[in-house]
Design a protein that fits this description.
Blueprint (H helix, E strand, L loop, with lengths): L1 H18 L14 E7 L2 E6 L15 H21 L3 H19 L6 H21 L11 H14 L12 E3 L7 E3 L1 H11 L3 H24 L7 H8 L19 H6 L14 H19 L2 H10 L1 H11 L12 H4 L1 H13 L16 E6 L5 H8 L3 H7 L17 E6 L6 H6 L10 E6 L6 H8 L3 H7 L13 E7 L11 E7 L6 H7 L4 H8 L11 E7 L1
Antiparallel strand pairs: 1-2, 3-4, 5-6, 7-8, 9-10
Helix pairs in contact: 1-2, 2-3, 2-4, 3-4, 6-14, 7-10, 8-14, 10-11, 11-12
Length: 551
């Protein structure tokens, strides 16, 4: 097992270096830093120790790009290791961090062409591995799949030659109060892509279509915007409320946090309203109305939704036209954006014509109940007779699987499926709230002259916990106006990594039980379940479990 594990890890790092040739700056790794040893005859542990000879102090702000790129490469290596170790949950989580880090890195001023090239190679390598080489992740229907599909579509369109573009007779259907529907060579080309390389994804979009039309179309009518805007959500997220992109947009309408906040969508430790299919649809409709008011043209409004109003204005100025189809100075993805929507409309309105057969998912039917207790969804699941996964389908804004902390006389509006147990109210009334170590978070706006030491002292918490929960690059790098999350209570159970513990992997052997494993590593069954996302006590031979142990 020792040799096999070592082969996996070294193989993962080899893949990383194969994908990123020549970019060793800021990322040092050697087999001397890799310590693999037996914990017991029935387990093994993997420990990656930093090479002290290469450790650097946190750089000044001018070197922020190099520091963050080094951290992104390290996250990528960890993600590959988790993947080849068979740790699906950890791999998915780490790849989310990789793409979040790349999104933040893109906002850092790039000093020269070499940094620009390095960033693009890093992004390409991460997407290529995630999509093509990952062993444990199914990219066919996960949150990132739409973003990856869009990248493939852009590459497909960009690589086409004139010979590839079949001649079609261009047509435009204009109905008052609706978005004009255009059919041209570019739309036909994207339909062809959806019929071939994008077929699997588009089939899932079509199956979800009726479910979300029943929710979205009434809201679009209420907000007085054209119903065709529905198809923007289809190409943005594949109609998945929990979809995210490597640009770190989220939800049906793929809002980034700043734009979501502008339109009233809250994003806290506990909830992310960008993922709520009703709240985010109201926000998207208002956003589209503002863009249409600014440009007076739905195609230009769509383009601005994709790349920003400023980008569209500059393209109009450079191309001396307001005709979307003639704006050659738009980014490649934005030039494909409107024909992408048109293609989705054509296929959705007549799936059989384009070779698709729709197997519609059932619509979501619910009643809203007021929950006045900050309980975990497991409790609501037991009272309702439904699974936690089902409850999250109806309440996708809940990030931690728990009702957010409530003030006195406050309640949370919860969507309860109509097929819930008729005894729900009476059963839930019997639920008692016991004192617990649930995580309590407070927001703190950094003032001029404040340091993390002063902030930690004010709240009586550890500096390390503030750094960890906010994913700070360093305890030194905070700035006035920055909002920090302060873990006031219960952070120990949520801490991913701390100074007196290390993560190891235990491979389940024949005869192992969770209680036996817990005793061996001096921990509890509940913690092992939490670390590995286990709902029951079942484990299988060969399964790799994350274990946090004391140094």
């Amino acid at each position: 097992m020792k040799n096999l594990t070592k082969t996996y890890i070294i193989g993962a790092v080899t893949v990383l270096w194969y994908l990123l040739p020549g970019y060793a700056t800021g990322f040092e790794f050697s087999t001397e830093s890799l310590n693999i040893s037996d914990v017991s005859p029935k387990g093994s542990r993997i420990e990656i120790l930093p090479d002290s000879t290469h450790q650097k102090e946190f750089p000044e702000e001018s070197d922020l790009y190099d520091s963050r790129m080094a951290e992104t490469k390290t996250l990528f290596a960890d993600a590959i290791i988790a993947d080849v170790s068979g740790d699906t949950l950890e791999a998915v989580y780490l790849f989310e961090l990789v793409f979040e880090a790349l999104s933040e890195l893109k906002d850092v001023t790039v000093a020269d062409e070499f940094q620009y090239l390095e960033f693009n190679r890093m992004l390409t390598a991460a997407i290529d591995y995630y999509e093509n080489d990952a062993e444990t992740i199914s990219s066919a229907d996960n949150g990132l799949s739409v973003s990856i599909l869009r990248d493939k579509l852009n590459e497909f369109i960009y690589n086409q030659t004139l010979d590839d573009l079949e001649y079609v007779e261009e047509s435009v259907e204009i109905i008052p109060g609706h978005v004009p529907i255009t059919y041209n060579r570019k739309v036909a080309s994207i339909i062809k892509f959806y019929q071939t390389k994008g077929r699997q994804s588009v089939q899932k979009w079509l199956d979800r279509m009726d479910r979300y039309k029943s929710i979205i179309l009434p809201i679009l009518e209420e907000e007085d915007v054209p119903p065709e805007i529905f198809y923007l959500a289809m190409i943005e997220s594949g109609l998945k409320p929990d979809a995210y992109s490597h640009k770190y947009a989220s939800g049906l309408w793929q809002f980034v946090k700043s734009t979501g906040k502008l339109y009233g969508l809250k994003s806290t430790w506990w909830i992310d309203e960008r993922n709520d299919f009703e709240k985010s649809t109201h926000a998207a409709a208002r956003h589209m109305k503002d863009l249409y008011a600014e440009f007076g043209d739905w195609y230009l409004a769509f383009a601005a939704y994709n790349s920003g109003a400023g980008t569209v204005k500059r393209a109009i100025k450079r191309n001396h036209t307001r005709d979307y189809w003639k704006l050659t100075r738009l980014p490649r993805e934005t030039r494909n954006y409107v024909p992408n929507i048109m293609a989705a409309i054509y296929i959705s309105n007549n799936p059989e014509k384009w070779g698709f057969h729709v197997d519609p998912e059932p619509v979501l039917s619910w009643q809203e109940v007021e929950i006045d207790k900050p309980v975990k969804l497991d409790v609501i699941a037991k009272c309702s007779g439904l699974g936690v996964k089902t409850l999250l389908q109806y309440n996708p804004e809940l990030r931690k699987g728990v009702i957010p902390p409530l003030k006195e006389n406050e309640s949370y509006s919860f969507r309860l499926p109509v097929n819930a147990s008729p005894q729900f109210d009476s059963l839930f009334a019997l639920v008692e709230i016991e004192p617990s170590d649930e995580l309590i978070i407070s927001d703190h706006r950094v003032r001029k002259g404040e340091s993390l030491w002063l902030i930690a002292k004010k709240y009586g918490v550890r500096i390390q916990d503030i750094v960890s929960i906010n994913k700070l690059q360093s305890a030194r790098y905070i700035k006035p106006g920055q909002i920090l999350k302060i873990p006031l209570k219960g952070y120990a159970d949520y801490r991913i990594e701390n100074s007196d513990s290390r993560k190891i992997y235990h491979t389940v052997k024949y005869g192992d039980t969770l209680s036996g494993i817990a005793m061996r590593y001096h921990t509890s069954v509940n913690k092992i379940k939490k670390w590995n996302g286990l709902r029951g006590d079942f484990i299988r031979k060969g399964q790799k479990l994350i274990i946090w142990t004391k140094v």
